[in-house]
């Protein structure tokens, strides 16, 4: 089986898919998308993903491709039998947290991190950044409370809920997340990073170091 992930190191959404692939044991390879030089807006890339976004997973053996990190994670679970939960109830709970992450956590974190670090300083909208950071504090509080007394977000094993919610939380660039302020999240991120096979996003995927803040 040959799986190719179109991705780049600065992308937390790409990281969700790349980390799932790495921990699944499936054979895969990253393919660099030079996002900051406009590669995702080219006709060639939009033929892969009309949304013009990374990640894109290409399964060459089955002549199949899929986009959006949550859908890619679900496909990885289909191929590997991992990370989807151990019962119908757990599978729905995993989906609930993936949707929470996509709507409340990663969506806000990704945009805020981009505005604060990858735009020229004179173009950074401070009111938007402050608003987003307020929304993020609420999302962090929800996740931190849920993790009280738990090892993982759903059940007794790592699932796509964990691999989705962690997507932006290992990045060093500032976007309004202080691990020390959320001890349950901090302990959970440490547990995940101690899992055999775990890699930091900048070690797992290719990128442009010169483009990082």
Question: What's the structural blueprint in terms of helices and strands?
Answer:
Blueprint: E1 3-7, H1 12-24, E2 28-32, H2 43-48, E3 56-59, E4 64-67, H3 69-80, H4 88-117, H5 126-146, H6 160-165, H7 183-193, H8 201-204
Parallel strand pairs: 1-2
Antiparallel strand pairs: 1-3, 3-4
Structure explained in plain terms:
This protein has 213 residues and is an alpha+beta fold. It is 48% helix and 8% strand. The chain contains eight helices and four strands; from the N terminus they run βαβαββαααααα. It has helices spanning 12-24, 43-48, 69-80, 88-117, 126-146, 160-165, 183-193, 201-204; strands at residues 3-7, 28-32, 56-59, 64-67. The chain has a four-stranded mixed sheet, covered by helices on one side. Helix 1 (12-24) packs parallel to helix 3 and helix 4 packs antiparallel against helix 5. The longest helix is centred in the middle third of the chain and has 30 residues, at 88-117. The model has no long low-confidence stretch (mean pLDDT 95).
